[in-house]
Amino acid sequence: MDIGIGTLIFLFSIMLILGVLATKFSSRLGLPALILFLLAGMLLNNVMYFDNVELAQLIGIMALIIILFDGGTQTKWTSIRPIIGPAGVLATIGVLLTTVITGLAAIYILDFSLLEGMLFGAIVGSTDAAAVFSVLGNKNFNKRLTSTLEAESGSNDPMAVFLTVALIELIQFPESSVWMAVGSFFLQMGLGLLFGLILGKATVMIINHIKLDTSGLYPVFAMGAAVFTYAITDSLGGSGLLAVYVMAVFVGNSDLTYRFTILRFNEGFAWMMQIVMFTLLGLLVFPNQLLHVFWQGIALALILMFVARPIAIFISMMFMKYNLNEKLFISWAGLKGAVPIVLGTYPIIAGLENSQLIFNAVFFVVLFSALVQGGTLTWLAEKLNLVNHDDDDTAPSIELINLGTTESEIMKITIVKGSPANGVSLNHLDLPRDTLIIGITRNNKLHTPTGESVIQKGDTVYVLSDKENRPKAKEILIGTELSENTQQSE
Q1: pTM of the model
Q2: Residue 437: pLDDT over 60
């Protein structure tokens, strides 16, 4: 049916409003919000017809860039540094093993050829950053597990994308070289890592030195830099998604002017893109089509959750220092979401014979995985005794507030247990010249500091300082080691 522009705008507004309200509803149920967004898109099929797969893929990729950038900037380097090895293995070998096992099951269940089965396995092989960030972000799970899963989900998309594209090429051109594809993989990962680091450093340098007329332009610039990172890396043959995640982690763990403004803008924009993306992807599926793959979808989802993912995790982490309960939790936390659905559009655009069947089966697996695994993750963590009851921070929090075109800044610093300023009065702090502590917040109350004021763990202090004195002030307040590993503010 034809729909006017006014009606489309009205539906868009309803979609955003209901999407925001759905996040509150989903958190109370312990479910990923993406389930409600997908269902909303499927329901909209009764009002409007949408089958533009190319547009859905474009919006999906743009949304993934923004979601990865938001998740990366909020990832603490001190938390993921010890688990880079395990996360890297899970993001590569783990995805490959999941692909093979799930693909073999798809060959028999969906009557696919070998390459078609492997293609299906590759599409659903990776965990989804949007789903993992949304489910783990506000839960008090064991910090090491949370960091492992966030790093895995943020870095395993490139492997899934590579396998999907390579298998589609092998299906279309059987004479293609497998070894050439393997070499291409290492090239993509290497370029993604390299460009992510270079452009991340360039982004931080520009943001901290450029003088914009309004603070609202800084988050726009940061988001533009993330999209540019993907575009330039992808155009040069690298993994754009990996580059965006690496760039975001670098930006989020650097001293950054207008950090709070940038992070809050990223968070809101990422949520909006999640709502739009999942609803739009839901529009591509019709409930009556899912009925044709009902039992096949359930069978594949169960194999993926109870066989493929656990086997991949236990083999990948065989020699790693994770106990049985931690491996079980990581196995169950392999949430599926936007990435498999977006990758499910690749075979359709490529014109493969069973592309629609692949897409519908992928959609069913994602829906079932998010519903079952996402809804039971908190319960499982409690049962496995993996909930972290220690709320003490291990790293300070710093936000820079730029004062217009002056050379001065206000640092908002959270004092933690290991800070040398903890328990010290302001009279005994040897702060640099022209550096003042202008405010202290404690227990949500603002205190006017005096020379006798004693800084305590948990305090947030506001420090007025010139840019050149910033490193020395940070060293005195939070120490050399903590200063080097400063994390983002709340």
Answers
A1: 0.76
A2: yes
